[in-house]
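Could you please consider the sequence and fold following this short note?
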Amino acid sequence: MSLQYRSTRDLKANTISASEAILKGLSADGGLYVPTSIPKIDFDLSELPGFSYKELAFRILKLFYTDFSENELRKCIEHAYGDTFDTNLIAPLSFHGETGYLELFHGPTIAFKDIALQLLPHLMTTAAQKNHLQNKIVILTATSGDTGKAAMEGFADVDGTKIIVFYPKDGVSFIQEQQMLTQKGKNTFIFAVDGNFDVAQTNVKKLLNNEELSRELADNNYQFSSANSINIGRLFPQVVYYFYAYAQMVKQKKITLGSAINFSVPTGNFGDILAGYYAKKMGLPINKLLCASNKNNVLTEFFNEGVYDRNRPFYVTSSPSMDILVSSNLERLLFYINNEDVQATTELMAQLNEHGKYTISSEIKNSLSDFFAAFADEDQTASEISRIYKLDGSVIDPHTAVASYVAKIYEERHSDSTIPTVVISTASPYKFPQSVLIGLHDPAAFESGFIALQALKKKSNLAFPKAIEQLLSKQGSRAKKIISSSDMKKAVKGILFKK
C-alpha cells in the first residue's frame, strides 16, 4: 500500500507521494509534510540484532518511501553508507559508565547530519527521475553549524543541483566554519548572515514560499527544495539509528529483547528527537525521549509549562547547533498531539509568527508524556565534559555533554533507574576543540582553533578523523561572504540568474 503525505496546515488534506514531498521539501502553505499514517514495523524485534545498518535502513525506509522500488531504495542506501564512513557499523554504540552513547559522527563531516545527508542527494536525484523533473534543483538551507557542511558535502557536484547555504556569521564554531569555507564543488555556495540561526531559517522559509520567486525560478528551469530536517528525505533516515541503537543494546547484553530504554537527545530544531518519536510510534520499545536543551531552553519550558515563547534572550553557546529559539520540527509534534487537527496546528503557528508565543491546553500538554525535558547551562556543559573525562579518559563534544547531563538529571529525579539510557552523541569532539578544552581546564582552549585541535589530540590520544586531516592539509579557503538577512533573496538571485 502506498503511503501518501499531507501538509500540517492543509485543511483540504491534499496528498502527494513520498518522492514528490522529498522534491518539494516544504509545503506551499508553509506547513511540513507528514505521512497520512505512521507505519508499524513489518519485522519482528527479534530480527533486529541480525540486521546490518544498510539492511535496517532499507527495512525502515521502505515503509516511508513507498513509491521507491526496492532496487531504487537499496541503490540509494548502498551509495550513501559506503567508504565515506570510517566504520561499517555506521553508528557504533559505546559506553561511559552504565550509559550508552550512540556515536553518529563517523561520516565525512564528523557530525550526525551525515547519516541523512549522505543519503538525501541519492533520494532526491532518484525522485527527480521518477517524476520526470526537467528543472534543476536548488537546495536552499539554513544551518546552525553542521547541516551546511554535511549538505554541501552530500550535494557537491551532483548533476542537476545547486546548493546555497546560509549560516549565522558569529554562531558556529571555528572548525564548523572552516569546514564550510573549504568545501569543494562548483555547485556549492555559502553566505554568512548578519543575524542568528532563527533569522537565517525564517528567511529561508520565506524564500521557499515566495510565489513570485518560484515563478522566476520556473521560468529559468529551476525549483527550490531543502536539505533541512523539514524535508522528509532528511527526517526519516534518522529514525533508523534509534532501532540500530536498540539492536546493539541487545547484542551487547545490556537489555533483554522487548525491554524499554530511554534516549537523551541534544535538541535544537527538533528533527533528531522527532525521529525518535516516530521510532516509538512504529513499535520500538522507548520509555522516555529526553529533550536536552542548552541555555536557549525554549523547549524545556514548552514541555514543562505548555508555553512556547521565543521572546527571550538569544545566547551564543558552546553547543551552537542547538542555538535555536524557533524549532521548526515541533510543528509536526503539535500536529500529532492535536489529534492531527490541521486548523489547530495552523492557529498555533500563526500565533508564533505574530506574537512569538503560544500556549497549549492542559489536556494537550498531557499528550506529551513520551518526553522529559531539561537543560544544561554553559557551566554544567563544561562540568559534564570534565566528568566523563575523569570517568574513563574519554572526550565528548558540548552537544553530547548537554544530553549526557540531562540523562544524569533524569536518573536523579526518577525512580526507574533500571531502565537504561542511550545518549545521542551528535558530533566529534574535534568539531569543537576549544569548548572541549574549556571543560578540561586546558589553557589551549583560548588559542586558535588549529592550535586547540593539536592540544585536544594530545589530551585525548584520539587520532584525527579524516575530516580534520583534510582540513589541516587544505591551503586555501573561500572568502567569507557576510550579508544582511534582507539581502538573502538578492544573493540567491545573483547565483541563479547571473548572466
